[in-house]
Amino acid sequence: MEKITVAIVGASGETGQSIVNGLLSSPNTEFDVTALTRPESLNKPINAKLQERGVKVVPVDLNGPQDKLVDLLTSIDVVISAIFFKSLADEIPLANAAKAAGVKRFVQSAFMIVVPPRGVVDFRAQKEDNLNYFQMLRLPYTYIDAGWWYQLSLPRLPSGRFDDVLPPGSLSDFPIGLDGNVPSALADIRDVGRYVARIIADPRTLNKRVHVYNEVYTQNQIYNTVEKLTGETLPRTYISQEEVVSRIDNARRELNSDPTNSSAFGMVTPNQLFYSWGIRGDNAPEYASYLGYLSGKDLYPDFQFIKFEDYVKEVLDGETKGVYQDKK
To answer: What pLDDT, on a 0 to 100 scale, did the predictor assign at position 328?
Structure first.
């Protein structure tokens, strides 16, 4: 069996944990996984759990001496960044070290919905700037987008039966975009890592953008499915494009006047993402194809993914957990 050495930054986050799970459970490729963690985070329980599973956990300061980072990456085939979007600048020294170390593939922190590179979601532009930098270095790369998670798609039930798995904040209370018939590519976060394991072992995806997802649903279809499986009637509130743009503009004005306003920041990003997938319809396979992405459906027609209906049934049976539960 082929063996690939992988270093991952951000292994303790939701995306990072999914990637680690996907690598360690891969039936096709053997992955030797190293988690790069901040020195101050070395003794966190999540890192102890990673070590128990055979993952090497190494403390590293991405903005520290470059030669130490180069030495660490010299034996690594693939570097994966699952860095939080506020820390995307840290990918630059990581990429510089990867290039100097001769890393064969660099996977930046994307793993999100398909969004135009600029002009719709602010932090998406920085991801594109980073990709441009990697290309300037001629660093071998793969850019992966992986749909809107099932775990972020559940509406709140009148009975409260979903409350234990809903993410913190207002995502589950967002209204429905336009008439509710805007299609969006969805994926279960547990499948994201399994897709990554296939992609980084595939020579066809080198120096390409790849779009993976499980199923395409509109918001109306999500609500209809949840009503069918729960027997509950969901209230449906719709919102226009003008109202969403107004929300974004108002929050941006507040943020511009006070960059430390966390409430305004918490309004800008979720509403920009919603505007992209729920109003504009960017998060669709057809748009990904237009932007030049390779399709995971074409690359891996044999991939057995979790269906949205099955995910909802798991939630109702108490067999799965939500994401970002530690932020509640």
So the answer is: 66
